[in-house]
TrEMBL record:
Entries under SUPFAM superfamilies matching the protein: F-box domain
Domain F-box: 38-84
GO terms for biological process, alphabetical: protein ubiquitination
Name the UniProt record assigns to this protein: F-box domain-containing protein
Keyword Manganese on entry: no
Keywords for this protein: Ubl conjugation pathway
InterPro entries noted in UniProt: F-box-like_dom_sf (IPR036047), F-box_dom (IPR001810), FBXO31/39 (IPR045048)
Pfam families (alphabetical): Cyclin_D1_bind, F-box-like
Isomerase as UniProt keyword: no
Pathway: Protein modification; protein ubiquitination
Organism annotation: Lasallia pustulata
Length: 491
């Protein structure tokens, strides 16, 4: 905590750095002290010292700047702090510190919330309107014009809803899908400006944000306390769910709505860098936060994904963030994963999940002779194509009243030889690979959920279609490039 306090006040340092005590004047005549206080680091060329300092994290760099004049001057180098800030602002190239005097001042202005822009993509356990099953997807970015960190909901509209009959089976309806995506700029979810909170009170303090497009809407941002994997158990309500790959999970239920100091991090080491919380309510009466009647208070917990889990590669080209057509439920966002073949499936599924998976397997086995029929004559060239191997999973980041966020929406157990059905010869899927899959369905309230036989039509690396056999319709999914929404050139 002492180390953190030193760092939290480093931006306002005006006094010279503390110097090591001079022992030479206290040395008795004729006695020579060993040169144990001499540092080999100080004797290095300036270029080497600079290179070493590039390896330090911001806190260590600020600590080092308080040791002596020489290291203070090196640690003040604007190039070091520019690189640190730029690292936390992906897909944008910063040209100046804007309203701040130096890059170090800019970094200090938003410490310790730079992780928001570094991870850029966040999904919540509740919708921004408070509905628990649907969730929200937001994009965090840095505005260099105003030097503020902000985040907005990414929303999608289905577009013109037309349909056609499937040439292979005229009883099946194909729903057209041309989604229009945009950020909801009228209602920011996060807004941190240069005066959001005193520098030394940002770890446990909840920061009031100027958000809400209607008078009386209040929101507070605060850090979440990480739960060590060894302390996690099935009785805990954690976010995100186990099926979503993320390095950290936190509690997302608290009778006190996370007001207790014991539920907030005391040090940066305790704070999660991949989750955070927002407290939101409507207030009547005085504008002051501490006065007035609060109504509908709730806390949303947000999490992010490791970028490599949704970044496509040559071997796993379908990884990514996608938007899908869910008919009357509208557009929903999902992450498509292609786990490594040697990776074990999550061993923390609940008994209901295990039962559902078993039920899906039974359904798949019983679907013989129907629309899903495996083509045993797949050529060796088709089977050996590198991208067509392994498992493909689609998990909802936003959901609906039937199948909520954080649940599978469909699974293709093997997009290679074992799951291969055919190569489509009809429009609009000409040339697409078709594989066996399982679609996740449920009654309203996620009741009686189960997996039903379906077909995944792999049209391209940016376009998928799902044939829901029992429902008699085909719906589409399109890839979303999050980096397209980090800049300001489209506004």
């Amino acid at each position: 905590m002492e180390r953190l306090s030193r760092f939290l006040s480093f931006a306002s340092l005006s006094s010279p750095p503390i110097l090591a005590p001079d022992h030479t004047s206290q040395t008795p005549p004729g006695m020579q002290l060993p040169r144990t206080n001499a540092s080999a680091l100080l004797a290095l060329p300036a270029e080497i010292i600079h290179q070493i300092l590039t390896l330090l994290d911001p806190i260590s760099l600020a600590d080092l700047s308080q040791t002596c004049h020489l290291l203070h001057s090196h640690a003040e180098d604007g190039k070091l702090w520019y690189d640190i800030v730029q690292e936390h602002v992906p897909a944008q190239r910063l040209l100046s510190p804007g309203l701040c005097k130096t890059w170090r001042d800019l970094y200090a202005a938003h410490h310790p919330y730079w992780f928001l822009t570094r991870h850029k993509l966040w999904f919540s356990d509740k919708a921004y309107t408070g509905i628990a099953m649907t969730g929200s997807l937001i994009v965090a970015r840095f505005d260099p014009r105003r030097c503020c960190i902000e985040a907005y909901r990414l929303v999608a509209e289905q577009g013109d809803h037309t349909f056609e009959q499937w040439a292979l089976d005229p009883s099946v309806i194909i729903h057209a899908f041309n989604p229009r995506l945009r950020l909801w700029l009228d209602d920011p979810v996060i807004k941190l400006n240069l005066r959001s909170a005193p520098l030394g009170k940002r770890l446990q303090k909840e920061i009031l944000m100027p958000t809400g497009n209607a008078q009386g809407i209040r929101s507070l941002l605060f850090r979440s306390l990480r739960v060590a994997p060894a302390n996690q158990n099935r009785s805990m309500l954690l976010w995100p769910p186990e099926i979503i790959p993320t390095p950290e999970r936190v509690r997302n239920h608290s009778p006190s709505l996370f007001r207790s100091d014991s539920q907030k991090p005391k040090t940066l080491a305790d704070a999660s860098d991949t989750t955070f919380r927002i407290r939101k309510w409507m207030e009547f009466g005085s504008f002051a936060v501490s006065i007035g009647l609060r109504m509908g208070e709730d806390v949303m917990t947000f999490s992010t994904l490791p970028e490599d889990s949704y970044t496509p590669t040559k071997e796993k080209p379908w990884r990514g963030i996608w938007v899908g057509d869910y008919a009357g439920h509208g557009c929903e966002f999902l992450v498509v994963l292609q786990p490594d073949e040697h990776a074990e499936l999550s061993n923390s599924r609940s008994s209901s999940q295990e039962s559902s998976f078993s039920h899906a397997a039974t359904n798949m086995e019983s679907a013989s002779g129907g629309a899903i029929s495996v083509n045993e004559n797949e050529t060796d060239e088709q089977a050996e194509e590198a991208p067509y191997s392994g498992r493909l999973e689609a998990i909802k980041l936003t959901g609906d009243p039937n199948v909520p966020r954080g649940e599978y929406t469909f699974i293709a157990d093997d997009i290679g030889r074992k799951g291969f059905i055919r190569i489509a010869e009809e429009q609009p899927f000409l040339g697409a690979r078709v594989v066996k899959s399982r679609g996740h369905v449920a009654a309203r309230g996620f009741i009686n959920h189960s997996y039903i036989p379906s077909e995944l039509i792999m049209m391209s690396h940016d376009r998928l279609a799902q044939y829901w056999v029992e429902f008699g319709h085909i719906s589409f999914y399109s890839r979303v490039n999050i980096d397209d929404y980090l800049g300001f050139n489209k506004e």
